Each structure stands twice: as C-alpha cells, then as structure tokens.
C-alpha cells in the first residue's frame, strides 16, 4: 500500500510563508518599483548597420529627385515644376555591379553617383532609410549588405550600458542591430535619437553608419500595452475559473485561481527584488506558468474528485486530500523536474531576454508545483472543514453523474 503523507500539516505554515513572501513583494513594489522594459515605457527603437558605403549620390539641379532601392532595381523619381515627371528604373539583372549601375545613373542630368567600391553586386545594396531619399547636393550614401565588421560588444562600448538594450538581428557580416532606449518624456525623443546617432557617428564614422529603421514608442502606446497586458491576464484567470467551476466545483475552481494568483505574485516578487527587466518576454513566462500551474492543479483536483467517490471509508475530508496528494506527488515532481532540465539548459546557454524568460520560468515552475500541493489544497480544505462522509459521498456521486 502506498504511503500517505499528511500534507495538511503543512497547509498553515506554507500559507504563512507565502503570505510573507507576497508582502515582501508588495513592499518591494513601493520601495524599488518594477524595472519596466521598453515595451512598457516610451522610448526609441532604432535598427542600424555599420558598413563602408560603396557609392554616394548627389543632385545639383532644380527639380525634385528621389531614389528608391529594392531587391530588384533602383528607381530614380523625377518631379517638380519645369521637370518631366518620370521614373527611371535600373534593373539589377542588367546592371549587376555598382560600377555598371553608376555609369548609367550618371547619364541623368545633374545627378552624380560617385563609386567608392564598384565590385559589389547591386542586389545586396541598401540606403540609409533614416535619411531622406530626396537627392540634394549633400550625398546620399548607398551601402552593401554582408560587410559589417562590428560586433554587438562594439556597439555597447560606443553607446554605454545605461538604459540601452541592443539586440543582434542576423549573423556575421550580414548582421544589423536593434537599439532600444527608454525616455522619461516624449519631448526628449528627438534629442535621444540625436544623442544615440552622434555616439555611433563618433565611434564608427558618420558615413559608415546606416540607420535602417527608426520608431518611437510614445507614452500613450506604452500605457496601452500595459493596460492590454493586465486585461489579457485577467481574462485568462477568469476563463480558467469558469472551466474549473464547470468541470469540478466552485471551491475547487477558486482554489485553483488562488494558486495561480499566488504563483504570479511570487514571480513578481522575484522580478521586483532582482530588478529583472519586465518585458513582453517575461510576461510570456508568467502566462506560461499560469498554463503549467493549472494543468498540475487539475491533475490533483481530478484525483480528489475520484477519491471522493470511492473512499467511502474516509471520515474526514483531510484523509481524502492527503490520499489524493500522495497519489499525484510522484507525477508532480517528475513533471516539474523534467521540465526544469530543459528550462535550466535554456538559462545556461542563452543570453538577453531569453535568459530572463528562462529564469522567470524556473521560479514559476517551482512555485507552481508548491502551490498546487499546498496553496490550492489548503483553500479547499478550509472550505470543506465541516465535510461529512455521507454528504461527501452523496455530493460527489451527484457531481460525477451530472458531468
């Protein structure tokens, strides 16, 4: 016969410990605050490449002239008063190198395309899109893809570490870099962009820095993201409560929701006191744990319901609860440990936001197993402290039949 562990003896101590940890998290919220990521506060997102330009284009005429580059061709758009409105296209299948392209572009009146390295294939060219595509006497640079010689460490060194997140997009000499930086007020956005670009220009040379894309996250957008995240979490909790109430009973459902809220608050306590950046990746970890924890809790609740039906000799609900928790203990431990193996590997062998994601999962997995055994069960035991065998058997049979 399988040994039955008296888990009910740990309900009150574990509840007190959890309450103290959660209170510490609430205190930390007011003392230290949450280290919000750039998804939840206004800031700058800029994608850059660092490469030597292969050509530059200038225009000295009076018409309006713009350039567009795609993977298959270059378009020179001519417009304005006194000019013939037209678009001249140069297909890269015909003009395969920078030299051959420049020779044809220079046939346009008042347009000068100066070649710095003419051997590159035209299919791998891109413009500095932050700069206007309008041609003037100031040069518009054209860059070759696949020639970046800088690393993410070089960019961090040039920009400094304070409040800046840098993510590498792509590999090797084809890499570009996403720079994210928060601001305290929307009015500071332009100066922030100038500050970031000036540091890059000073480190690598102005003509060698191609700003591929720039976006600003305003305070209204960041607030909207925060509100949507809260609403999404609340909807998840509500749907889980409805599911558990339909499948089991209201006290089972409420106990499972309390366990989920417990796990979430424990994770937030950890996030607050470690000052881990709270980003959408960490939010994904929280929602992942919500799903994992309810699965572990449902297994236990299902066993409790089964034992309510067949343990007719039980005199107290605590006997049924201890038997159910003992029956599922090995499964709970093995499931958590095997999942932890994968998550710990993710934590050890990754960096950046994925590392934070894995660390949050580790805390949540341990908390999820603990809450499924001690927190949700403690609440259900408190709700059924006056349980009687006759009522319990009759009620459980009625519940099973109705399902």
List the helices and strands and how they pair.
Elements: H1 11-31, E1 43-50, E2 55-59, E3 64-69, E4 73-79, E5 86-91, H2 98-105, E6 111-115, E7 125-127, E8 140-144, H3 152-159, E9 164-169, E10 176-182, H4 189-204, E11 209-217, H5 219-247, H6 250-274, H7 280-310, H8 317-349, H9 352-383, H10 389-402
Antiparallel strand pairs: 1-10, 1-11, 2-6, 2-8, 3-4, 4-5, 7-8, 9-10
Helix pairs in contact: 1-6, 1-9, 5-6, 5-7, 6-7, 6-9, 7-8, 7-9, 7-10, 8-9
Keywords:
alpha+beta, 11 strands, 403 residues, disordered C terminus, 4-stranded antiparallel β-sheet, elongated
Structure characterization notes:
By secondary structure, the chain is an alpha+beta fold. Helix content is 54%, strand content 17%. The chain contains 10 helices and 11 strands. The chain has helices at residues 11-31, 98-105, 152-159, 189-204, 219-247, 250-274, 280-310, 317-349, 352-383, 389-402; strands at 43-50, 55-59, 64-69, 73-79, 86-91, 111-115, 125-127, 140-144, 164-169, 176-182, 209-217. The strands form 3 sheets. It has a 4-stranded antiparallel β-sheet. Strands 6-2-8-7 form a 4-stranded antiparallel β-sheet. A hairpin with a 6-residue loop joins strand 9 and strand 10. Helix 7 (280-310) packs parallel to helix 9. It is elongated. 30% of the residues are buried. Mean pLDDT is 80; it is low at 391-403.
- What percent of residues adopt helix (DSSP H or I)? 40-55%
Question: What is the global morphology?
Answer: elongated
User: How confident is the prediction overall: mean pLDDT?
Assistant: 80
Gyration radius from CA atoms, angstroms: 31 Å
Along the chain, the helix and strand elements come as HEEEEEHEEEHEEHEHHHHHH
What is the first-to-last residue Cα distance? Answer: 30 Å
Output the number of helix runs: 10
| Secondary-structure content class | alpha+beta
| Tally of DSSP β-strands | 11
Runs in which pLDDT lies below 50 for 5 or more consecutive residues are 391-403
> If strands are numbered along the chain, what order do they take across the biggest sheet?
9-10-1-11
Proportion of residues in extended strands:
15-25%
């Amino acid at each position: 016969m399988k040994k039955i562990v008296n888990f009910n003896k740990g309900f009150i101590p574990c509840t007190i410990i959890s309450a103290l940890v959660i209170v510490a998290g609430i205190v930390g919220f007011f003392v230290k605050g949450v280290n919000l990521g750039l998804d939840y506060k206004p800031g700058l997102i800029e994608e850059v490449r660092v490469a030597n330009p292969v050509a530059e284009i200038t225009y000295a005429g009076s018409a309006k002239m713009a350039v567009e580059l795609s993977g298959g061709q270059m378009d020179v758009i001519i417009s304005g008063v006194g000019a013939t409105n037209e678009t001249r296209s140069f297909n890269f299948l015909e003009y395969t190198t920078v030299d051959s392209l420049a020779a044809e572009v220079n046939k346009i009146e008042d347009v000068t395309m100066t070649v710095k390295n003419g051997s590159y294939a035209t299919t791998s060219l891109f413009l500095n899109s932050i700069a206007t595509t309008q041609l003037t006497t100031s040069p518009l640079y054209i860059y070759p893809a696949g020639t970046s010689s800088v690393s993410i460490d070089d960019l961090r060194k040039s920009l400094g570490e304070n409040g800046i997140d840098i993510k590498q997009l792509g590999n090797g000499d084809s890499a570009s870099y996403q720079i994210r930086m928060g601001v305290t007020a929307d009015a500071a956005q332009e100066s922030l962009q100038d500050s970031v670009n000036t540091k890059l220009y000073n480190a690598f040379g102005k003509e060698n820095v191609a700003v591929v894309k720039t976006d600003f996250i305003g305070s209204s957008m960041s607030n909207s993201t925060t509100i949507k995240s809260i609403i999404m979490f609340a909807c998840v909790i509500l749907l889980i409560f409805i599911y558990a109430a339909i499948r089991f009973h209201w006290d089972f459902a409420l106990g499972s929701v309390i366990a989920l809220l417990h796990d979430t608050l424990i994770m937030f306590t950890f996030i607050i006191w470690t000052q881990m950046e709270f980003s959408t990746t960490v939010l994904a970890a929280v929602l992942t744990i919500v799903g994992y924890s309810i699965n572990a809790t449902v297994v236990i609740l299902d066993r409790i319901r089964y034992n309510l039906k067949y343990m007719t000799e039980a005199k107290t609900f605590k006997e049924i609860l201890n038997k159910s928790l003992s029956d599922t203990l090995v499964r709970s431990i093995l499931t958590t440990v095997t999942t932890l193996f994968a998550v710990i590997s993710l934590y050890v062998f990754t960096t950046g936001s994925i590392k934070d994601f894995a660390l949050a999962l580790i805390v949540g997995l341990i908390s999820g197993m603990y809450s499924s055994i001690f927190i949700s069960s403690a609440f259900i035991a408190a709700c059924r402290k006056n349980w009687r065998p006759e009522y319990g058997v009759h009620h459980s049979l009625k519940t099973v039949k109705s399902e």
